[in-house]
Design brief:
Blueprint lengths: L2 H13 L3 H17 L1 H5 L2 E3 L11 H7 L4 E8 L2 E6 L5 E3 L5 E3 L12 E4 L3 E3 L4 E2 L5 H6 L5 E5 L5 E2 L13 E3 L4 E3 L5
Parallel strand pairs: 1-2, 1-6, 6-9, 7-10, 9-11
Antiparallel strand pairs: 2-3, 4-5, 7-8, 11-12
Length: 184
Amino acid sequence: MKKEEIRNRVRARKSMLSPSERQKAADSVFQQLEDLAAFILSDRILMYHSLPDELSTRSFIDKWCGRKHFFLPRVNGVNLDILPYDRAHLRLGAFQIEEPEGDDTADINDIELIVVPAVAYDRQGNRVGRGKGYYDRLLSTSRALKIGIAYDCQLFDEIEADELDVPVDMVITETRTYKCRRSR
């Protein structure tokens, strides 16, 4: 199945989820993430602010931001900068996503765990993004544990990947955690 067909299929599936189903899924996914030893032991975590059709990350970030050091991406041309999360210093950036302001960029090699957004995943950790390659460029330079989060309806048996696609190490859905490959 082509990536654009996967994007269309997932968009249709997610549009059928009720607000209560979305909230229940988010609660389950983030509880599983919190229970992972990798999350418990990590201090410097790259998160992202979710789009309306994604599992909402906002409550999770708010819950943990005093106990973990969260970072968020900011679009910079064709790449992503990594900046510390500070609720008071966010602005609407590229693609209408709240992004951190300032010049205090972090080195991706200082990040211990990355929660990766995607349109779809497979059980091997391959992912379909939104098509711009921002995360593939960022992830290709990181040795951090990469965890994808998704609704069950975003999980496929197999996604065709090319050489520039960077897989995740785990995928967490509302019903299960998939260990995809050995972390580096």
